[in-house]
Amino acid sequence: MLPERIETERLVLRRWSLADADDVLAYAADPEWSRFLPVPKPYERRHAEEAVAGWVLEDWSTNPDWAIEIAGRASGGINLRIDHQHRRGELGYALARRHWGNGFMTEAVRAVIDAAFASLPDLARVQAGANARNTASIRVMEKLGMTCEGTIPHAPRGEQLERREAGVIYAVLREEWEEIR
Length: 181
Fold this sequence. Notes:
Aminopeptidase, 31% strand
């Protein structure tokens, strides 16, 4: 089982609390933040409350979901969808725009990958995907030594797009992570 609280030099990754809805609304209502995310637009208080309630209720054994706390406020989130049968985990992450460009997401992703490989001995790989235009997310994966495994056509969930967009998949195997770390 993955830890419910992970502390890094500058961050606290912890389980979500219903009290985090105000913080989520504060950053998720920013259209620039949600540019590549399948979230309701406009983003309203009820959306934040529903999202946080869902994260609180996630089955921790297969869907751990941490709030990224910076200076005492939930400022984003990171999750790892674990497929025990296929021995892989898939990361998802987002951070409040006011914290972009400070290395916080790279720090959070590194901590979760470390914890995943340390806590789940059968886990063979961790992967993540992003819209091919989301250069910031791609940069996080590349900084951590993840390898681009390909480009796929996709349409974000909940979005009606007139054309498909390209997505990229990055991954790191346990052996590779041990060498990188």
